[in-house]
Specification:
Elements: E1 4-6, E2 12-14, E3 18-19, H1 25-37, E4 42-44, H2 52-62, E5 70-75, H3 82-96, E6 101-106, H4 116-128, E7 132-138, H5 142-152, E8 158-162, H6 170-178, E9 182-186, H7 199-208, H8 212-223, E10 226-227, H9 234-241, H10 250-257
Parallel strand pairs: 3-4, 4-5, 5-6, 6-7, 7-8, 8-9, 9-10
Antiparallel strand pairs: 1-2
Helix pairs in contact: 1-2, 2-3, 3-4, 4-5, 7-8
Length: 277
């Protein structure tokens, strides 16, 4: 198995990334430096996380070559007008103190606002200007992806969505795959849920002598999904990244997938109605 994903535009991402939401200030910098020193090569940020400066500082402090690291950020809903997109991305680049970002996503489609196509056109322009290497989306339903592709001829490289065993997004994953879009998972091991205490997952972890979190993250990787777990603890960061030395069999994969629920969303944010500022 390759140690990275090759996106539809030829750029690459590692198999696991670090979510940076709530990693702020000097403490956030220290946590991200620890992650980079522990082997992470993808830091996932956003304008609305208000930590792009900390991300850039961590990269400069880590000693890891810039070219080895993938840095992602996201366009907020208040800047979907095409005239605002390029300057928003310029500000993201300036806040990080880097020369460019590797990946930029539209954070939410905001369908009621109805400007996500306009935002995508601005993203294409930002890529052409060299501000960002790859452009994608987050929380986009298949019909929204098709609008972007049909109207611009440019397919998003990534679609980052809520995805975990309680909400395994099978139809969305298949829709992304058919369009050549890599699915990323936010909240891949749940948040304040009993997911890691599920008997099915605990039993598999015990059998494989792994932690429940490692089992869930391995499930993501074998689905072809790029999970972005968040942790500020270096030991947990390393644990979440150490998932290449074992493999789940088909029975184990199916058992984890069977935990899916009709009401499995952890966050009450349906992309067909949610509006992000």
């Amino acid at each position: 198995m390759s140690d990275h994903h090759t996106l539809n535009d030829g750029t690459t991402l590692p198999k696991v990334g670090l979510g940076t939401y709530s990693l702020w200030g000097h403490a956030g910098v220290e946590a991200m430096v620890a992650a980079l020193e522990g082997g992470y090569r993808l830091l996932d940020s956003a304008v609305n996380y208000e930590n792009e400066g900390a991300v850039g500082k961590a990269i400069r402090s880590s000693g890891v070559p810039r070219g080895d690291i993938r840095v992602a950020s996201k366009l907020p809903g208040r800047h979907h007008k095409k005239s605002a997109v390029v300057r928003t991305i310029e500000e993201s680049v300036l806040r990080t103190g880097l020369d460019y970002l590797d990946l930029y996503l539209i954070h939410w489609p905001n369908p009621n606002q109805g400007l996500y196509l306009e935002a995508w056109e601005g993203m294409i322009e930002a890529r052409e200007k060299g501000l960002v290497r790859s452009i994608g989306v987050s929380n986009f339903l298949p019909e929204y992806l098709d609008v972007l592709i049909d109207k611009t001829g440019v397919t998003p490289s990534v679609n980052q969505v809520e995805l975990h065993p309680y909400f395994n997004q099978k139809e969305q994953r298949e829709a992304d795959r058919r369009r050549g879009v890599l699915t990323q998972a936010w909240t891949p091991i749940g948040k304040n849920t009993a997911l890691l205490e599920e008997q099915t997952i605990v039993a598999i972890a015990r059998e494989l002598q792994k932690t429940p979190a490692q089992v869930v993250l391995r499930w993501h990787v074998q689905l072809g999904v790029l999970p972005i777990p968040k942790s500020a603890t270096s030991s947990r960061q390393v644990e979440n990244l150490t998932i290449e030395d074992f493999r789940l069999n088909e029975t184990q994969m199916s058992a984890i997938s069977a935990l899916n629920r009709a009401d499995g969303r952890i966050f009450d944010a349906d992309p067909s109605t949610h509006e992000e500022f």
